Structures are given as structure tokens and as C-alpha cells.
User: Fold this.
Amino acid sequence: MAKVVNCPCGEKITGENDDELVRLVQEHGKAVHRQDVSRGDPLAMAQPAD
Ligand SMILES: [Zn+2]
Assistant:
């Protein structure tokens, strides 16, 4: 199931599955916020996307 994370900066990050979502959020965290994101955080913040 696709999931979306609404980043506090306003970015919406959508992944087709958990692995993709985590990867995209980690890339976004590094590129935009210069933060390392642990695997649990995107999954805890994720909401169903449809
Ligand atoms: Zn962001």
C-alpha cells in the first residue's frame, strides 16, 4: 500500500511501499535538512496515500 509522509517543511513524500518510503525520506532528510533519518521515523509519520 502506498504511504505518504508530510514533512514539516511542506514536502509530501510518497512511497509505493515501506522500503521505498524510508529510502525517499532518508534522501530528503539528507539533501534538504542535512539530517540522518532512522528507519522507524518515516514509518511512524506515514499515512495511507490514495
Ligand atoms: Zn522536509
In short: The radius of gyration is 10 Å. The first strand starts at residue 3 and ends at 6.
